[in-house]
Amino acid sequence: MEKQNKEIKENINKENEEIRKKNEEIKKRKEEHKENKEEYKKLLDYEDYRKKSLEEIAGKYVLTADNFIKMILILLRIRSNIPVIMMGETGCGKTSLIRMLSRLLNEGSHKKMKVLNIHAGTSYNESSSRAT
After folding, report:
1. How far apart are CA 81 and CA 27, in angstroms?
2. 70 within 8 A of 97, measured Cβ to Cβ
3. What is the pLDDT of residues 85-108, one digit of tens each?
4. Which residues contact 51 (CB under 8 A, 6 or more apart)?
5. DSSP letter at 92?
């Protein structure tokens, strides 16, 4: 009987030790998770990672159906590597349209777009050096 009691106590002690080890492992994982959660929260708190609404991006720009269709057609050509040339009277909105398309594609950032103003007096060498 005493031998059985001793074996039972040893088994209980082994089980308790295993439980203690598992509890320590769980506690360690919780701490790691807490640290990771805080790190992720810091990353997500930056405003740059926040998705902007169309109203925030467009601002005062009036997005008409005509401008929207033009943007779609320009985007399709750009994605197909087809050159796009925009022509029109001075002040008709060519540059505004392209800038708004760039901002919409880049979630409001205007830093990713490079503007090249090419006119009748621009030579090939000037335009190619500006593009790089």
Report:
1. 55
2. yes
3. 888 898 999 888 988 888 888 877
4. 107
5. S
CA 34 to chain centre: 24
pTM for this entry: 0.51
Nearest by Cα to 71 from 39, 89, 96: 96
At 105, which helix (H) or strand (E)? helix 94-105
User: Which residue in 82, 109, 86 sits closest to 98, CA to CA?
Assistant: 86
Angstrom CA distances, 78 to 22, 39, 105, 120, stand at 57, 38, 12, 23
Q: How far, CA to CA in Å, does 107 sit from each of 16, 49, 69, 74, 98?
A: 56, 10, 19, 18, 14
DSSP string, 19-38: HHHHHHHHHHHHHHHHHHHH
